[in-house]
Amino acid sequence: MATTTSPVPSAKSDQGGGRSSLRSITLLILPLVLLAGVLALIVATDGGLGDRDTPPIETLNIQRITLPEPGLIELEVVNDGPDPITIAQVMVDDAFWQFTIEPGNTLDRLDSATVAIPYPWVKDEAHAINMISETGVAFPAEIAVALQSPQTDTESFTRFALIGFYVGVVPVALGLLWYPSMHRLGRKGMSFVLALTVGLLVFLTIDMWEEAQEVGLTVAGAFDAPVLIPAIVLLTVAFLTLFGHLLRQRIGSASGVSLSYQIATGIGLHNMGEGLAIGTAFALGEAALGVFLIIGFTLHNVTEGVGIAAPLVRNRPRLYHFVALPAIAGAPAILGTWIGAFVYSPLWTTVFLAIGIGAIVQVVIEVSKLILRDQQKADEPAITWSTFGGFAAGLAIMYATALLVSA
């Protein structure tokens, strides 16, 4: 009877496999080690040019000016240049003034600091500030209207939360009240409403893109915000596309509920941007502008409820969805007002706006697919008078209500 024996790996083969793995790891790491060495050499020798005789390049980005209490001015600054900056003097209204800087007077590249100036500012008046570096470079700033900044206390948090609630949650909930009327629409009527939703969302995308670019210009140039915006938009679209596939696997591809939640999420990120604008206006002492924005955004956001309700028309969703959807779409406005009033940051505002753009773009793609499928089932082209009219109406409605904010 013949017997078979399985081969036993020899010690040599084990050692050979180990050497092969070590060689592969070494070849993988070696270019990185050499690259690190080259970069270290460039930094140590100033690119091979040796010591520079030219003066340093100094750029100071002023992120925010606040008046936390009477007799005190605070500025948040970032070193936006390639060389260190030492702030040596501060002038307020053409007079040199004492000041303190935390964590210190010298800022390396991208370091941030808070400049505190004990100055008796006068309510409702303008004040000019100049920060002067050790080399004599002046960095001007201005307080257009001096008003005390919002305080981080319970009362202020509650007031700004109510503002966000009025601007975000209430109008979206009112827009959802059109759901019963939309439920009685025929196929062409629904095509019109879905196309109207696309028009609303496309306008929001354009509006947010413009806003993100404006805020991005105030970000420290070293962060290159104009390039950061499209990169974050693309990443958000890709991520939400994967997330949408997961929702469809769990809830079902035929359900409009998942699409409504995606729309609500995108609109919520947009409403966070609106809350930022309102909170920042009050933080800068522009109360009249803040109230104007509240009224304009409230009227503007009623139409968003229609867009959220449109995918639900062919379903009979449970009542709690009509509570959750306005909360998702509107509650971020509360967070936005808090951030704008208390801890505003141009960089993070730009990031949030870019994420919002990506979220809305992904929703536009999904709603457009839904319209296309419905039109194909009816053996009609994608663009008919119903879909074109809905899309144009969506753009027109958003433009008209936006005039209430920008007028």
How would you characterize the overall build of this protein?
- It contains eleven helices and nine strands.
- By secondary structure, the protein is α+β, with helices and mostly antiparallel strands.
- The protein folds into two domains: 60-143, Immunoglobulin-like (Sandwich), CATH 2.60.40; 154-406.
- Strand 8 (127-133) and strand 9 form a beta hairpin.
- Helix 2 runs antiparallel to helix 9 and helix 4 (187-216) packs antiparallel against helix 10 (346-377).
- The protein starts with 10 loop residues before the first helix and ends with a helix.
- The mean pLDDT is 81.
Summarize the structure.
The protein is an alpha+beta fold.
Brief descriptors of the model:
11 helices, Immunoglobulin-like, 60% helix, alpha+beta, five-stranded antiparallel beta sheet, 407 residues, 2 domains, four-stranded antiparallel beta sheet
Distance between the ends: 99 Å
Largest sheet, if any?
Answer: 5 strands, antiparallel
What is the number of E strands?
A: 9
Total of helices: 11
Spans of 5+ residues with little confidence (pLDDT < 50)? Answer: none
Mean pLDDT, all residues: 81
What's the gyration radius in Å?
Answer: 28 Å
How many structural domains are formed by the residues? Answer: 2
Relative helix content: 55-70%
The amount of beta strand, in percent, is: 5-15%
**What order do the SSEs take from the amino end to the carboxyl end, as H and E?**
HEEEEEEEEEHHHHHHHHHH
Structural class: alpha+beta
Which geometry do the CA atoms define?
flat
